[in-house]
Design goal:
The chain is mainly alpha-helical. Helices cover about 60% and strands about 5% of the residues.
């Protein structure tokens, strides 16, 4: 009777890797499951690009309606250009960044603009609570837009920090 060759186990059952290369996950000595650094970086990069897409859609929306409080601008045209420049830098970077210092600086710029917007929103809500009827009437129509823009800026900054480690 001929001897049967033993088949190797399927790669998915091998916690170390395969003859063709390592798997993207490893079991640690403590029994936990760790993801490969490239996989984690790719996920953070994808999240960052997703939030940049949200931000870009928000920026093209009309920001101001003429009427009560139309002269109140949370950020300037210069900051608007800073946002566009920073997002262009981040979008140009591959998963493993070719210019990590530029990417960090762009993330920092978005975070600073987001923090300034957050300060504006705090002041706006504080004023609204002081003189509810008058101030709320001025701000309530624009508030959802500015809150969404603030959230997107801060999520991009957080994604950049996670991506660059």
């Amino acid at each position: 009777m001929p001897k049967r060759r033993k088949r190797p186990p399927p790669p998915s059952m091998d916690p170390i890797g395969t003859p063709d290369g390592p798997l993207t996950t490893r079991f640690s000595a403590e029994g936990g499951l760790r993801a490969d650094a490239t996989v984690v970086r790719a996920a953070s990069h994808k999240e960052m690009l997703s939030w940049i897409g949200v931000l870009e859609r928000l920026i093209v929306l009309p920001r101001q309606r003429l009427g009560i409080g139309h002269n109140l601008q949370p950020f300037t045209d210069v900051e608007d250009q800073e946002i566009k420049h920073a997002t262009a830098i981040l979008k140009a970077q591959p998963v493993v960044p070719t210019a990590p210092d530029q990417a960090r600086a762009a993330g920092s710029t978005l975070k600073k603009v987001g923090e300034r917007l957050g300060t504006y929103l705090d002041a706006c809500l504080m004023e609204a609570s002081k003189s509810a009827g008058k101030e709320l009437g001025k701000q309530v129509g624009r508030l959802p837009f500015w809150l969404a823009l603030y959230y997107a800026l801060m999520k991009i900054a957080q994604s950049v920090a996670n991506w660059l480690g």
